Amino acid sequence: MGVVCVLQYPVPENKSGQQSVDLLQRLIEDLGATRTGTFCVDCETYQSTQTNPQRLVHVLHNTEQPASCFAVLDTGTGLVADILYDHLMLKLKGFYTARKNNRVECKGQRYVYGDFIIKVGSVNIGQNMSFKGILVELEYGPCVVPVDCWNLMKELLQGFMGNHAENLSIYLKGKMEQVYAPLDTMQQYLEHFNNFRKVSSGTVSR
């Protein structure tokens, strides 16, 4: 993989979430991008049961890396493991329990446009998977250092996101001159997921 940025697209007041997704997809297809299927990124948060203060472990999956599982601590430390990590968390149920109604999913359409991969996903939270917002993921394959390709990525994003293309995640801003890795994508998604959780519940899951 190359460099990925994950951005939030605010839903306009006069449109529903689905209408906004449809508009974005139409603009992307008008650029000449080809639809290549669907994608999904999900996150389950576990909290410690025997420490005070409680510690959190966020466990994430990405259909782009189907054999991998990503874990991020509330300290920001990340781990990439194989998919059996999920079974490990179940075995640790005496120490960590899944937070109720805290599951987050971002799923939608995947497009290819030259050296770019574009994804538009609806974010849903909780047991009922209620809609909370829209995330756009853009990947540029030929580069591995964000600062070297950000202007090119931003130019493409502005073609269908307008001024919202400037809204880089705090995490990525701190990684612009470093070599990019798949875990960095999960860290960006987690930042956005936590922001949506904050709006949804009034509290922040770190």
Topology record:
Elements: E1 3-9, H1 17-31, E2 34-48, E3 56-62, E4 68-73, E5 78-82, H2 85-91, E6 96-98, E7 104-113, E8 116-125, E9 130-140, H3 146-161, H4 170-173, H5 182-201
3D structure, described in words:
- By secondary structure, the protein is an alpha+beta fold.
- The protein contains five helices and nine strands, in the order βαββββαββββααα.
- Strands 1, 2, 3, 4, 5, 6, 7, 8 and 9 form a nine-stranded antiparallel beta sheet that branches.
- The protein is globular.
- The model has no long low-confidence stretch (mean pLDDT 92).
Structural class estimated from helices and strands: alpha+beta
Number of strands: 9
Low-confidence blocks of residues: none
Overall pLDDT confidence: 92
Roughly what percent helix?
25-40%
What is the gyration radius calculated from CA atoms? 17 Å
> How would a crystallographer describe the biggest sheet?
9 strands, antiparallel
The coarse overall form would be globular
Helix segment tally = 5
Give the key terms.
5 helices; 36% strand; 9 strands; alpha+beta; 206 residues
State the gist of this model.
It is built from 5 helices and 9 strands, in the order βαββββαββββααα. The two termini are 27 Å apart. The chain is of the alpha+beta class.
